[in-house]
Queue: 4 jobs
Job 1
Amino acid sequence: MRNPIAERIADFLKHYPPFTSLQYQELVTISEQVKVIYLERNQILFKIGDPTHDSFYVVASGAIGLSVISDAEETLIDKCDEGDILGLRPFFAKNNYLMTAKSREDSIIYAIPIEVFKPYVTGNSNVLSFLLESFASNTRNPYDKDHRGKLISENVLFNEQTATDIQYFQPIKYTKKPITASPNDVVKYIAQTMANRQIGSVIIQENQMPIGIVTDYDLTSKIATGLHPIDVTVDKIMTVPVVTVPEDISIAEAQMMMLKHNVPYLCVTRDGTEKSTISGIISEHHVVAAQANNPGVLLKQIKRAEKSKDLKVVRDKLTDLIQNSIDKNIPISHITNVASEITIAITKRAITMAIEKEGPPPVRFAWFNLGSQGRKEQLLLTDVNNSLIFEDVPADQYDKVQKYFLRLAERVLDTFEKTGYEKSEQGLNANNELWCKSLTDWIKQYNTWINTPGEKGIHRSSIFFDYNFIYGDPFLEKALTEEIFSKAANNQLFYAFLATDAIKKPAPLGFFRQFLVEQDEEHKDTFDIKNRAISPLVDAARVFAISKGITGITNTYQRFKKLADLEPQNADLYLECAEAFHTLHWFRTEDGLKNDSNGSYVNIEELTKVDKVKLKNCFQPINEIQDLIKNRFQLTYFT
């Protein structure tokens, strides 16, 4: 029998995410349980501190304001219009509402019962992903003309005691002694442990390193459904691989990793990789309990972007976020980690937009960010470097396939330029046929760099050893990485040339400890912080990391941290280099934001005496790490 009211509600919902991911009949079934709420102007739907309701809400008409209490005053932080969702807290947390929802005009609200909607969430990953992003995303106040488009952290003036506006950059609190099991343990007993301990997951480990995870969802989808008997060993049903993160991960970074990998749990390890000992576990509850707002809104806006100008809006907001974080002395590691995830998302969206215009790729391919983007260190709008690999094709198809990817890359780079980035002046981009070729040709190229290094070529080629796989088929990245490290292993000639290049720029202090400043007219009397201070540390980290076979870590700071773990005898020096790199990166970013530049040249006269001392203290580790390079790679034989 028809239900015209339910059909009318379903006809409304079908136009708005996440309901767009559901079948119409599913929407009708849900709508039959929906309660219609009429609110007069200034009527409260829920307020701060109220116990969570058994429903979440969709605005059918009118507008609902979301506000918090800041300095004893109610401050509007967002406004929900027709089709917007609010009140998702009961979906993800048991504690009370953190905001007040009040109608700004006469409004009609649809209340959707949580229990009615839950089956559609667990059965549809698109719906779940949307709800997670909606709940965790930071939002903006479009009605505040002074802060239009700014993040909540810039709109709301929280005091230093609460520090709520920057809490999403603070290290997240997590369970530090998680329950673990071995792959041969029986599921039945693991399930009993989970029930007794009232936990939702168990990490599966070998030699104290994570190899998988079993969650409530694994038990319900693989055991309760009869797919596997309950007496099988857990390796038959565990989720692999487990997503790992480092110990000092911030709230924002944890949220982004969950959204990026679409997982409800993160495994904390000593160095953030699966080849390190387990330190703890982070669940959605940890993230939800820690914060209500973070830069996740930028990720959502990126996914919705249709044009280059949409991505430019996001990149401009990222600059605002970086500036705001610098002003508040947020650790530079947190800033770069969050910024790099947003940059990666921009790159992915630029590629998908290009594919939509150029048509489906003729073969599998992989896109790599290189240089500072490849190392996840880019904060300023500097130039971009990238490369593209496509799978091997017959010789008679090569030119046609390559031309497709060159056109694709040109579209991507055009989007980058409109977003605010610059193309490489050296042509180190994927629209150059030298850096857009087949897997076999790329392997030949790397073999040339590794087996017959030349002093002229090694400097330019070094950037290609700082790559980050962004989009496409991971098989191509894996094949290339395995080939590179196989050929580089114990290749003393290659290390020697790479190391020689790494010590070409000595520590930038004169005999009397004065700064070595530039003499050319354009940058006269300024200090080249990029080439004289940052690059020597980047180069040193690279040569040591490659020589130690460190894969999956290209970030300079993280490379030094990993080296400190691998070489306890040199740990102090590596850690000093890591901290020096962060300090230099901070100086460059602050100067670049201040002067709307790439931050490469710092005016020493504008620095305070304290800042000059901080800067000079970064130079001693450069001297010491270069001495270690000379001794480690016996460079006297190559001078």
Job 2
Amino acid sequence: MSAEATNPVSAVDAAAADTGVRRRGRARLDLRRLGRAALLGATAGPAPRDRLPDAISHVAEAHRAHHPEADLSVLRRAYVLAESSHRGQFRKSGEPYITHPLAVTLILAELGAETTTLTASLLHDTVEDTEVTLDQVRREFGDEVAYLVDGVTKVEKIDYGAAAEPETFRKMLLATGDDVRVMSIKLADRLHNMRTLGVMRPEKQARIAKVTRDVLIPLAERLGVQALKTELEDLVFAILHPEEYETTRALIADATGSGSPDALADVAEQVGAVLRAADIAAEVLVRPRHFVSVHRVRLKRGELRGCDFGRLLVLVAEDADCYAVLGELHTCFTPLISEFKDFIAAPKFNLYQSLHTAIAAPDGGVAEVLIRTHRMHKVAEAGVVALGSPYGTAEPSESDAAAEDGERTDPTRPGWLARLLDWQESAPDPDTFWSSLRADLAEDREITVFRADGGTLGLPAGATCVDAAYAQHGYAAHACLGARVNGRLAPLSTVLSDGDTVQLLLAQDSGSGPSPAWLDHARTPAARIAITGWLQAHPDAAAQPAAAPRAPLSVAADRSSGAELHADVDGPPAPVRPAGCCTPVPPDTITGFRVRGGAVTAHRTGCPAVAVMHRLGRAAVPVRWGDAAHCRVTLVAESFGRPGLLADLTEAIATAGAEVVSATVEPPSEQRVRHTYTLQLADAAELPHLMRAMRAVPGVYDVARTHRL
């Protein structure tokens, strides 16, 4: 993409070569040799039709390694068009410009991209930088290739000015939503440009590196393309943190050049011997860490040992073999259980699957081990690139087409991408889009929460009920009043955990809106943009002071009467009364504690006050129910405010045969009203029936017994 480049080998790659660290994949392409080959091809005329031009023979070799039956004729035609259209153009380093699309295509070919992606990669700069038109690409190579080329073509800076960069990324993301191969080409394009960034001014290097760090690296992570992500991280590390980079480079040089035995290789031999003895067919490899990974380990563990400069990779044939390997390792070595993670049973949101564990090494260090199948390893390295065309060859089934809430069953369009495409529609301003995009991509973990209706929501880690409300209901979430999390009422500020069940409570009045305080709890761009838009459209509502917090629950009731309670104490009988914090009734399981004056209070065993008493060292007193069936209980009814609600509730209570001892109605807050009743029941067994009758009153969304400290 108008690549500006110089050095064919980056500082990171030079350091890796100096220290003997073996990079993954093939040897680095000699761009100057490739440039000369391109020029010779230009002067000697087109290659014969029965063979590929010499300049892309290495691309063909890498492509055939993954796709032996691939038709290479289309690559020949794409190269001829790209070379002729870029002829006479040079990069800032002096190489012919054709070396850039060739290098980008080689990166994708080594990752296993299919022929259509490689064809588009060869042509990805032709529409932007030459006289070739998109219609010409479509006529010669088809709609798919034209779509990919258009997706990675920048918008005109003359039309967008300072907004050209964010609008270009918006265009690419929209295209990626329909075909993820667009972003694959962009990532490979940025990797090659970062490899050859040395000719640029330092300030421009830093600007490009920051965009790469904030946008491209998180996208590579989310798309699972670890091979590109790790090298981009090292290149950015060298530019933005040169001192830390040099320190890390020196540590790696010392570790690999000291001539001392390789501790990790010794552990690999032991692991291999154990697996052979167990008759498990496995390939055990030593996988050197990249620079950023070594830097992170040094920050985590301090002084580095021999095993900290790499990890063991165990490759097997089947999923079941992964767990067999894990069992042998944990049996024959000392495992560090805190390091164990199962990403096979629960894959990451970027398609990554593997077992992670760690064992104690002979030198006292820690040897980290990755266990995966060969297919898992391919997807872990290449991510969505390894999945090929998102369209496939078979017709999609009805089940494939029916995806709920934007979560397409197509793995090449994961839920996070669908959510990103949704909220970007509400961010027409380029600055809002750009800042929201960076904030969204900064969330590197995802959780799944379950909806009350059985569906699921994918949210970033740290998301709250506010985020869940807008993810499920969109703009209708403006009327959200609260939520139930795992069956219990919870404020909208509640931070959700993976696996939580969430039920959002919406007001019946659709004209209600969010509070400005919601912005303090919103983590997702969709929620923040929607809340901000509503507040800007309703400045009067936004300026209103927040409702005062409701006073602590106060229940005026005589607790001396009710069901009979007895305490098993030495000496004279002690008076026993139910605790006001949890109001136990028969047949609740209860426990007692002495209070001032020698009396005993009885609590439900699940009451938080019981745990507090135990922490304070207070001795429990055995208590039990007597024969009397009558009881007194305090209930709290949460409801939406409406006329006649109090009358309907008291009628329901009377119909159920309960006597109202006292009642309190708190002032409405955000259209919610809390009613507190202390009730006398002739028979404690009628309590569940009474609570169901109160919940059946229109507008009441929760009835619970008091449970407070």
Job 3
Amino acid sequence: MKIIVTDEVSKEGLALLTQDPRIEIDVKLGLKKEELHAIIGEYDAIITRSGTTVDKELLDAGRKLKMVARAGVGIDNVDVDYASSRGVIVVNAPFGNTNSAAEHAMALLLSFCRNVTKANASLKGGEWKRAPFTGYELKGKTAGVIGLGKVGGRVATRLKAFECEVLACDPYIAVKRAHDLGVKLVSHDEIYKNCDIITVHTPLTDETRNMIGERELAMMKDGVIIINAARGGIIEEKALLKYLDSGKITGAAIDVFSVEPPKTDELKALIAHERVIVTPHLGANTFEAQVNVAVDVSKEILNYLDDQPLENAVNIPRFDVSLMDQMRPFLNLTNIMSDFIIQLVDTNIDKVTFSYAGNIAHYDCTPLTVCGLASLLNRMVEQDVNMVNAALIAENMGITVEESKTTQSPSFSNMITLTIECPGEKRLISGTLFEGTPRIVKMRDYQVDFAPEEHMLLLTYGDRPGMIGKIGTILGTHDINIASMHLGRREKQGEAMVILSLDSAVPPSVVEELRTATEAAFIKPIHMPGARCSRACGCGI
């Protein structure tokens, strides 16, 4: 695997990659856009931080790219949707700099409250002044934390240690988490109206862009202190400057800006404001965090090479890692079933339904569905399909994908059923695991029981004496050995289905000979070359 590193990344953190003989790393810092685009086509993966924009143009130029690894939390410099459409996996390091970011938010807050930066400059300038630098205590203040994720939760804990009353707002976390942290969950407006200190810890998304603007700032208490060590653009900077000038906002401490480096007159005025302290996006800049995020993305690249599940892929549905061992056989089963049934379909697909019954229905089955969908589509389209782009490709093809679950399973403790609906026909296959081995237990309305093999042949025909003999004779004449046979029928002299496992493939001419001899209503050779997903799938089976 050939990897390019385009931003400053800890060498210690990259050691896992540099020591692996399968990997070749090129560190190329400070490349101009045109220079990077000219060479990116040589690489399988790119490791970046915030200094490289991974946009449509770069992804198009990176024709071999399989992975974008962002050594940090934010991915706003990566066009994840377009990467997904190209089947490129995007991974980040969401936890490596968690502690660093939380501590930096507290450092900014304390520095402002105790006038550390001003007092430092004054003393170093030869002055000995104390009165101008009288500060504020945190004890007894009401602090509002917007975003109670990994970083926000740590900030809330530290604010409580300083004896603040902490209010929090986060629509995506459980009330129990707030209780565990000892904070009170409230609405956004309650934060703005009641808090002496407000600190934001959300990602930058369409939902959070300019989340705190004119309306929100006007609603705040007089004398409020605002901290932003999350992402530039969450707070509307023009409005913030206005309320700083008016005196309504006592001060702000800012580590991130909507444009970095800040170039506009507005941002320069905000940075220069006497009641604003600033740092140049240093939230993740500790020695420990730099090593941690590099280690985290390096591990993800090695997981990819080793066919292990990716823990921090942002565009692949994934299992809880603690469940991976027990779910891995079901991923394999879904892949095999999908690869089998799609070979029975000759017309356009309208709808695909994945149904899960039994104990497995207690868990999130989305990765199973997407893995199975990728296997289906790989037989239908020329481009490589994996768990990253499967849903997008299905949508573009007009295929409806549904998932259903029930904890009741009358026949087996766990059963997966895959149904494909086409114009004028429907295909159905059900499978389960016997001691960890995939078995097909139902096809259409026939009860069957077989383990898929590399070479198989499926026939349906009118049940009458001598048919099995004819099939065996024809195959024997052409030196095709039958390894096993599975026969199903609904009634005597009705339709019969036979599924043969063979030692070798059946040539088209022999298929036609069998069709004629048996007057088969349906006959199809099946080729199952393997029972593993493509490495690019990312599911780790």
Job 4
Amino acid sequence: MLRRLNADDPRFKGAVFTPGLNLVVADRLRGSASTDSRNSAGKSSLIELIHFLLGGRVTKTSLAAKKPLREITFSLEMTWPDVDFLTVLRTGSRPNIVRIAPDITDTRSIEQITLGLEGDSADVSVDEWNRLIERDLFHLTGDHDGVSGRTMLSFLARRASSHGFNEATRTHARQAEADATTNLAYLLGLDWQLANGYRELAARKATRTQLRKAVNDPVWGRIVGSIADLRGQIALAQDQVDRLRAQIAEFQVVPEYERVKEQADEVARRIKQLSQDDVIDRDNLEELQQAISEASDVDTGYLEPAYEELGVILSDQVRRRFAEVQTFHHSVVRNRRRFLDAEVTEISERLEARRAERSRLGEEQARLLRVLNDGGALEALTALQQAMAREQATLEALKHRYDAAQTLEASARQITTQRLQLQQAVSTDLDERFEHTTEATLLFSQYAQRLYGQGREAYLAIEAGPNSLQIRPHIHSDDSRGISSMVIFCFDLTVAVLAHRHGRGPDFLIHDSHLFDGVDDRQLAAALQLAADVTDEEGMQYIATFNSDDLDKAVRQGFDASPYLREPHLTDRLDDGGLFGFRF
């Protein structure tokens, strides 16, 4: 139970709570102008501060984050399992830290906690504080994905700022039905894990919808692709990987690969040079052979007859001189032929030597090329292995995309099938938990009939729906706003009582004055009396904030409010009438 809400600012009007019914009232003073409003008196702020101290998330627009309140340390005293009193302190300037006294974290034993030594406290994170709330107030242990202490507290202390009074089975306007009913299933004693299956399916469906949109997008579609395209791409990628794997398996690393390669290159260059030299020598040989054919003795037999015809008689001296010239000429021709023959022989020998060398070099080149062809350098093997690794990565990525595409194609059928299976499982579980649903229905009906009389039809409809566990509180009416508010009142009271009875929740329920707007005077009086009776019978606590004129309506119907009025007494006075003692 909550005992005291306070702050270290002396202007703050501390709130004191007791077991049973607690009414915090805001009055309109006689001198108030018609424009004065009690909307800023602090009724809703009181509930916001309770949420803040019970681990509520702080945003820029949160009450405790407002500049005038940021440095104020607020505190909440409350009873706690295995502890007489627990004090919780939190400030807006350090929203992620909560101080608790005594230290009730897992590091301390029950005996140490019970001793309550002076100064015994601990600073914990907000997440750790929420875990302690779930452990001790809601008795949640281990993994409980889908059930949250914060969400369940929002059912037990609805906030107008979150539109918590719009619908009985939701605590804020944008809350998913599957999320809300999973937490309600836990509080009502139903199989919350089955109910949570709807939430998981809804998340899968939302993901599938987004992926389906992405596939249709020309850019994002390449991330997944179609099954047919991916199947072809996988076949090509697999063939490339197999080919590279075979090359690596046959690869032999040649020692001194670079030296062998240089030798092969040098042999190739030498063979090329020999061929070029052959071309030059063959040209020279052809010229020499032509010169040899031209180097022959000249026929001089025609000279003497020619002189005789001219009447010139050659003397013996001339004839001797001519014979000497002829002999000299024969000597020159012979020497030239001898020289040319020697040159031809030398060139022929060089050509033959080159041919032999070219043959030898050809064999050496063939040997070196075979060595290079059969293997390679270690760097080449490494390059092949890296290439195969890249191709394997591409292949695996394609396979993942293929799996994703298959999953996407099959997911719609799977989700439909699983939803039907889940719906059947939840329906079967509700049959098996007939006592739980009956207890909840009868309790809700009993509370509604206390407000509207025995003849009023009122029940809880709990069934396995296609998209969530469906919980629908119903009171037969004309759907007026007042009736809707009383549906929420009876539903919250039912949930709080059942959770407390069976050890699944704390012993308090809190309602803001907004819940009672538009409620008929008789129902308002009956609701307050019902809250007083039920909390007394169940050993619980009910806290409600009221405008004084609304409470007067109940008083005029015979409800005695005086035993249940609690501090602070709020007013609409501008300077110090509100909860904080000043306006901001």
